[in-house]
Design goal:
By secondary structure, the protein is mainly alpha-helical. The protein has 16 helices and four strands. The radius of gyration is 21 Å and the shape is globular.
Length: about 375
């Protein structure tokens, strides 16, 4: 079998030139996670930890597997060869790291729903009461247990890497993992510091996007995959050039869905970002462009946890009328275009570049 390269010439298919099968990657990663977690659940000291693993399994049942796809495609971009098991297990470990981040993020934000289901701390509170414990302690227990579950999942993420074939060679990606994790913490802290204070500083909002989402969602998974393939500096540079604008576009789409999305598709209620007072690019643009009266409404409403649905509707109308919605759509389009332009000159095998084009579309043109 052959494929066409960027010049139109036919080349034989190898592990490096084969087009990554994204649905197959998802299935393979899910199988690894199911097997790994089943074994770890059987090895715990006592049955009291069963709700933790049950909650984790529920959280992992769904999601886009974007980080896994990025990691595996990064391996293809770096012309990875040989047994794919190692890269698939690394991809699965990144999904566990993502689960850790979601669990702690939901605790910090006191979120109720994730992917249409109760968040981990809510599920653990429910399990606590179902096990015969006093309802008055349910909320406090759920929050504390959620933090512990997040810690456990972070440990499991490391454990999956440590027990993978060729784990002794993971020293080469350790600096990337450490940078990814530290940047996520930095981004989360920036988000925490800015929450509750409506601000029209677009660059400050974009800084949160870059560190909280873009880096650990796209850039580092892609580069970790490339590193495991033994890629050189030119490939790593192209990975970052592609990933940073795409990661920003991904989060900008998320911000729009948080205000204008359909809860039946997103799995989360709209308005949470407004009620929590998140410093989003969408809100910064609205504050810059809204009339004086509308700005007063925004500054009163944003960060009010008791904001009624009717008042949220007014806030959404103000954002729409300010032109912020349209501006964010323009920013998403520009960043997607910038990312795709990188692929035209990136030193990636043609099939890997095509897979990244597909992922870029999925990540930025979505309703969930």
């Amino acid at each position: 079998m052959t494929v066409l390269d960027q010049t139109g010439k036919r080349r034989p298919v190898t592990s490096a030139t084969a087009l990554p099968d994204l649905p197959a990657v998802r299935d393979e990663v899910d199988a690894i996670l199911a097997d790994f977690l089943a074994k770890r659940a059987q090895a715990v000291p006592g049955p009291e930890m069963t709700p933790l693993f049950t909650t984790l399994s529920s959280l992992l049942d769904g999601g886009k597997r974007l980080r896994a796809h990025m990691c595996v495609t990064g391996w293809y971009a770096g012309e990875g060869r040989g047994d794919r098991d190692r890269i698939l297990r690394m991809a699965a470990s990144l999904e566990l790291f993502h689960a850790f981040a979601l669990i702690h993020d939901d605790v910090m934000d006191r979120s109720d729903l994730r992917r249409g289901r109760p968040t981990a701390h809510h599920a653990l509170a429910t399990a606590y009461v179902a096990d015969g414990h006093p309802p008055r302690r349910a909320t406090a227990h759920g929050l504390a247990a959620g933090l512990l579950l997040g810690d456990l999942v972070l440990t499991l993420s490391d454990d999956l890497i440590r027990t993978s074939p060729g784990a002794e060679a993971t020293w080469q990606i350790q600096p990337l993992l450490e940078t990814m994790r530290s940047q996520l913490v930095y981004g989360q802290y920036l988000d925490l510091m800015a929450t509750g204070r409506p601000c029209d500083d677009i660059e400050a909002a974009l800084r949160i996007v870059r560190y909280k989402t873009a880096s650990y969602t796209v850039e580092w998974p892609l580069r970790i995959g490339a590193a495991l393939a033994g890629a050189g500096p030119d490939v790593h540079s192209a990975c970052s050039e592609f990933a940073i604008p795409l990661g920003e576009a991904f989060q900008l789409r998320d911000d729009l869905l948080g205000v204008f999305g359909d809860p039946a598709k997103t799995g989360k209620p709209v308005g949470d970002d407004i009620r929590e007072g998140k410093a989003t690019v969408l809100m910064a643009l609205a504050l810059q462009s809204a009339s004086a009266a509308d700005k007063r409404l925004l500054r009163t409403a944003v960060g009010n946890p008791d904001l009624s649905d009717e008042d949220f509707g007014r806030v959404r109308d103000v954002i729409e009328h300010s032109g912020a919605h349209r501006q964010v759509e323009t920013m998403i389009t520009a960043r997607r275009h910038a990312a795709l332009t990188v692929l035209d000159r990136a030193p990636f095998p043609f099939p890997a570049a095509e897979a990244l084009r597909e992922i870029a579309g999925i990540a930025t043109v979505r309703q969930s």
